[in-house]
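In the laboratory, one determines a bound structure by crystallizing the protein with its ligand and collecting diffraction data. In a computational setting the workflow is compressed into a single prediction: the sequence and the ligand go in, and a structural description comes out. We illustrate the idea with zinc ion.
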Amino acid sequence: MMGYYILIGAIALVSWLVSRKLKSKFKHYSNVHLQNGMSGAEIAQKMLDDHGIRDVKVVSTPGMLTDHYNPKNKTVNLSEGVYNQRNASAAAVAAHEVGHAVQHAQAYEWLGMRSKLVPIVSVTSSMSTWVVFGGLILGAAAGFGLGYWVAVAGLVMMSFATLFSFITLPVEYDASNRALAWLKDKNIVTQAEYAGSEDALKWAARTYLVAAIGSLATLVYWGLQVFGGRD
Ligand SMILES: [Zn+2]
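The predicted complex, in structure-token form:
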């Protein structure tokens, strides 16, 4: 159990450090004002137009770093800052979220797979740790048998969350690549602004990478508890 707390603590520390860095990068590049004077909302709308996507709306959503694309009602949701501001951070986020809309419009495979996993993961992820833990306790109390299989079932549930976090990686990297390619091709940003947008998106991607590695490490840890204890 001690090892588990150390692992969880280490993952939490790294993800805190990366998200702190991400916030400071976004803050920094929000001081790089766009020469063309376009707001995040205008950039998002133009990128949709350039891709011939007419059934997706750009809307403003409250909060910070709350930006997302909603495939259900086909909306690009931009946080108030991104929606209204005219800087390299806003351009990066707006174009990234439209990148997801383009993926959706073009039936990008990884996005489809990710969407299919959402209902499964939303059920399994909240209880999987408890199922594994319960199985281990049951196994310790009653010997291997039922407890072992309960723990294995918990591991299977847990592995869906890990799979989900890894499928998220190509989806996120691809959305950023689409965003950056478009910003460059259409000369939406200057070279210096582009460098800022690229760096901001790189740090955003790292938060997903840390989450995926953390999820895998947790799965491996519990896997060792379940299968290691059998010998
Ligand atoms: Zn994204």
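The pocket of zinc ion is lined by residues 96, 100, 172, 175 (CB under 6 Å). Keep in mind that any predicted model is a hypothesis to be tested, not a measurement.
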